[in-house]
Amino acid sequence: MAQSFxxxxxxxxxxxxRLEQALARESxxxxxxxxxxxxxxxxxxxxxxxxxxxxxxERALKALERFEGRSALATFTYGIVYRTLLDHQRWYRRFxxxxxxDSREEPGEPVFPRTSETDLHELERARRLYAxxxxxxxxxxxxxxxxxxxxxxxxSVAAISGAKELTVRSRLRDAHKQLVQLLREDxxxxxxxxx
Amino acid sequence: xxxxxLAVLQLAKRAYAAxxxxxxxxxxxxxxxxxxxxxxxxxxxxxxxxxxxxxxxxGGLAYAKPHVLGELVEGLTQASGAxxxxxxxxxxxxxxxxxxxxxxxxxxxxxxxxxxGRVGAAEAEVxxxxxxxxxxxxxxxxxxxPHGLCRRDGAAKPVRTSQVAAVGAASPTQETPEKAVVSDWxxxxxxxxxxxxxxxxxxxxxLSESDDQxxxxxxxxxxxxxxxxxxxxxxxxxxxxxxxxxxxxxxxERQAQLLLKSCTx
Lengths: 195, 265
Known about the structure:
- The complex is a heterodimer.
- Chain A is mainly α.
- Chain A contains nine helices and no strands.
- The N and C termini of chain A lie far apart (56 Å).
- Chain B is mainly alpha-helical.
- Chain B has helices at residues 3-18, 23-38, 45-64, 66-90, 104-119, 121-133, 135-142, 158-169, 175-178, 184-194, 197-208, 213-230, 233-245, 250-261.
- Chain B has a domain at 104-261.
- The relative contact order of chain B is 0.08.
- The A-B interface holds A 18-20, 23-24, 27, 29, 32-33, 35-37, 40, 45, 49-50, 53-54, 57-58, 61, 112-113, 115, 118-119, 122-123, 125-130, 148-149, 176, 179-180, 183-184, 189, 191 and B 1, 4-5, 7-9, 11-16, 18-19, 21-22, 24-27, 29-30, 32-34, 36-38, 40.
């Protein structure tokens, strides 16, 4: 089987080659970095982010042979990341119906990197933003993040989420309404609040 | 959305941008993901699924019908024994009589309700036990309904079945000439059909002397059940103990244990 241009670009071997050999031969760090950024954007800073990235990477490496180049690679991988995240959240919901986590294992507050440039005030605002986003449904949350915060157009969001454009617009409208309602209750998001 | 809502969303976008991962965080995440992917899992997915299916199948069978597995093994060992006997016969060596195949599903069920009304439950069970293993007796019982029931195993020869059927259909006064044709189990069935327990016991006693271990066990079980029906618990319990001690096989042993429950220690 001939190598696809993605495999060539990323230095990946033919699909028949084993995953370990592929990774050992030439590291697809660009792909992993892309997946990490996308998963971080969709899922937010959380403790199981590495597990999610790993699950998405496994899927992506398997799915690359099916990639025909009809969309951008980023859209293709975003689709994988989106489905991985949704599957994980469904699994976690089912898990929570039967089990409760020990308080030590409970996912804590998101941790942001502390750099000299970052404004602590903005980070606190980001923390509250993620808390508000967590209260939206998975689909609406992903749609809002992809469109408003990541800057993708509606067609791309529709391709990623596997929904019609009208559905995406509808989700977007509802997500805006809910998020604004949630954030307006927060004093940090008052437009005249000091920054 | 009004201007105030747009302003809130602008603030949200700014906060989101401020919380974007740094390059070092991404590289750390990439390194962790790469390490995790290198720990490849060499799974044989079909093996696990197959194992689960096999365990479920056997477990389900063992749970639903515990005796079936035992009888399956028993049947297999008997079949191999019969094969050995057949090979021995071909060479001209004297062998024990081969165990006939079973006609359980056909003979067992119709016989019992018909006889229960006449000779009591215990005797009907003896007849049905007799019908379990011997083709002629199964046919004799089937003969009570002349249009008969088809046999699943086809162990009995058609000629013999018709002969026995004729015996079953004949009146008791005419049965003497055909008696020679009827097997021992057939005699037991006929005697029970007439309500002649003494004759049934005699026939069962004759079967108890058989060379075949399984035939002996079944005959003893029949005798024990007849003794219980006749009120002779002492003899019945002795036979049941004997059957229980000699490990007579799953079905027979279970029946013997049932009998033993009514025995006082």
